[in-house]
Amino acid sequence: MENTILRIEHLTKTYGKTKKAVDDLSIEVCAGDIYGFIGQNGAGKTTTLRSVAGILPFDSGEIYIVGKSVRDEPVSCKAMTAYIPDNPDLYDYLTGIQYLNFIGDVFGVADSVRRERIEKYAQMFRMQGDLGSLIGAYSHGMKQKLAVTGALLHEPKLMLLDEPFVGLDPEAAFKLKQVFREMCDAGSAIFFPTHVLDVAEKLCNKIAIIKGGKLIAHGDIAAVRGDESLENVFMEVLENREK
Amino acid sequence: MKSKWLLLTKIQLLGLFGINKVRKTDDPSVKRKAAGGLAVFALVGLLLIFYIVLIAVEFCRQGIGALLPAASIAITSLITLLFTLLQGCSALFAMKDYDLVMSLPVTKREVLASRLLCAYVSNLVFAAGVTLPCLVVLFVFEGFSFPVLAVTLAGMIFAPILPMAVSITISALLTALTARFKYKNILQSVLGIAAFVGIMIASFSVSFNANAEQGIDMNAMYALFVENIYPPALLIQMTLSGQVWPIFAFIGGSALIGAGFILLLSVCYEKVHDALTAKGARSAYHSKDVRSTSAFSALIRKEFARLFSCPAYLLNGLSGTLLLLIAGVALCFVDARPVLEALPSSLADNLVYMGLGIALFCIGTGCPSASALSLESSHRDQLFVLPVSARLILLAKAFPTFLINAVAGIPVAAVFCWKVNAPVLGWILLPVSILFISSFIAVFGIFLNLKFPKYDWTTETQAIKQSIPVMIAVFGSMALGFAVVFGAAYLGVWILAAVDAVCLALSAAFFFYFKNVRLYIS
After folding, report:
1. Which A residues in the span 177-196 are in contact with B, Cβ-Cβ below 8 Å?
2. Element (H, E) at B374
3. Which of A70, A106, A117, A149 to mutate: most B Cβ within 10 Å?
4. Among A11, A189, B78, B321, which is least packed, fewest CB within 10 Å?
5. Domain limits at B313?
6. Chain B neighbors of A95, CB-CB under 8 A
């Protein structure tokens, strides 16, 4: 499909000899989608995310980002992607601005554009006064804001975010949701695993539920949810699966 | 119930040698790598023992074998002093698990004792690797003696304590002095380098004096290490000469210093840790700070920032280069003519080419690229998701090693050529060879680190000093250095040509190999 940003086809990943973390998973994320990926601890969400980010090899299946294979063209895929892990352990020995410059250089963001975007997001997240400090001095929330700013610097087509709202203050979380919506309106897509069903329910237009590495429900949130709350659906789906 | 400090020590040792990982994993590749690592350690150990035996045999041939126990303890103590100084405070402080350990119901003394014991075990293994072969050689030449065995073993067991206490105290003082400065890491590194250079210059000056007055013999080596640099080892010698009290003074003194050191440090442990880990205050950025450069340049800048962020990394990374520079500066003040005249003409002609072996020995001693990847640890996912090829990342990681060694090595090569009256060919080939070996060691280091990464360190020292790639790079370069010195003595310029060709071919091979590498977090 033309507007497909991320296509995961029959992804399988095994740790060690037997532990299947992800089992024959297929998902499609289109331009404009905010796609929530829901599951219990150890369900395979982060493994999937890392495989999509190109930092974890997988056993079989294929992952395409805007039609390019993560396996065959990793650098092109990474250039269109931004990945923020659940606990962004940024380089403590760099200052915030050095980090952003580093990310800007590697993604080839021009000087003027970079300056404008840094200014915009630093203001939005109220961190102009801290960008000259070492990252080691930042709180968890500050690191998260810096990671998000770095991720937005090159306007990625696909954002991969692992629990993006953890550690953010309510204002920053609100503004980040706004940024996500603006990005999706402009044709990008967001794919994020979360445990917080409330966030998924309010923010996402599509969701997938994963258990034991297998996809057990997916699609438009309205279709998956029906008349019930997402929490109820999630519990029901898990229980039915166990039976 | 086991003592808590023993439990803490056990947990650290399990992580240090990766024993637990190998025991508990069902991943065959982890076991294969561990077996490879073990083989490397064994090889390095054998190499070290080989050289120690050669020196010990020479002691015995010169009829001074009885001095071996004291000399070996003095040498290991000096090396412990330097190595611990190179670690900075990271042997005891600023470990990743600090918060976890300090939140447990254990005393600071127990924490300190466990950390000191871990550092001690590493140093004791090294001390045993030097002292035991010396003892065996001594017994082969002069017959077994139980008193000699008992005194030497007692000395060996207690020997690392004093130099460790001295080095860690110097490092802690440097930390305390620099804690309030904005660029404290760089300041600590500079002061650490100054202390390292001071010790090296003292050793060199004593060495040159000893050579001038006593000739190059084993008595001079003994005088250098025992009488001039590490007098406590004299207590071992005095005991072996018939007095009983000196060994008790050595053991009692070491134990007292160790206990006193733990007591003293436990008072200021948290303060030193805070000083080490505290970061600068809030500061804004200026728009001039936003400027672009190429991806490769950005990666290289990041590597230099990493190098200067950690005093232990900088000190270890620069130790070989500093050694080379000190040798170069010392050469400027030495009259080489008597040595050149005393040497057979064939050897004097080849002296310039033997210089490459010395350079190789020094350059390999500090190889930051061999730990550059390991140091990424939990940051590595940030690096691996960047839209650049793995080759670019790896080359950027190798670049500081190449640049530092090339920039330091070429002027030293020029000084060496000047001092040994090198022919034109020597003036051209030696600097070129320095470039080639700097390039080879840089890419070889990162290749080794790629094959044997150590991401699960709790203190940077584990990656910088105790990891497999660093061991191979350091001891491999030493062995190659010696080989080139001996080879050049007989083959002259041909050995340079051979080394250049091999370095160039291997550098090119690694360059092409990196093209197909994929960097994954596991």
Report:
1. none
2. none
3. A106
4. B78
5. 295-522
6. 283, 285
Q: At A91, give phi and psi (nearest 5°).
A: -70, 105
Total residues belonging to chain B: 522
The total number of structural domains that make up chain B: 2
Of A165, A129, A159, nearest in space to A144 by CA:
A165
Neighboring chain A residues of B297 at a CB cutoff of 8 Å: 105
pLDDT digits (tens, 9 = 90+) for B121-161: 888 988 898 899 999 999 999 999 998 999 899 989 988 88
Cα distance between residue A142 and residue B280, in whole Å: 15
Q: Is residue B254 included in any domain, yes or no?
A: yes
Q: Supply the ipTM of this predicted assembly.
A: 0.83
Distances in Å between the Cα of B84 and the Cα atoms of A115, B145, B169, B175, B478 are 44, 33, 10, 15, 20
pLDDT for B208: 45
Residue among B297, B379, B385 minimizing CB distance to A78? B385
Cα–Cα distance, B399 to B368 (Å, whole number): 10
Question: Using CA atoms in the order A124, A130, A135, A138, what is the torsion angle rounded to 10 degrees?
Answer: -80
Same domain, yes or no: B327 and B386: yes
Whether the CB of A174 is below 8 Å from some CB of chain B: the reply is: no
* Pairwise CB contact (< 8 Å): A114 & B292: yes
B86-97 mean pLDDT: 68
Helices (H), B215-310: 218-222, 234-240, 245-277, 295-309
Whether residues B333 and B361 fall in one domain: yes
Q: Is A16 close to B27, i.e. CB distance below 8 A?
A: yes
CATH number for A4-80+156-242: choose from 2.60.120.820, 1.10.10.10, 3.20.20.140, 3.40.50.300.
Answer: 3.40.50.300
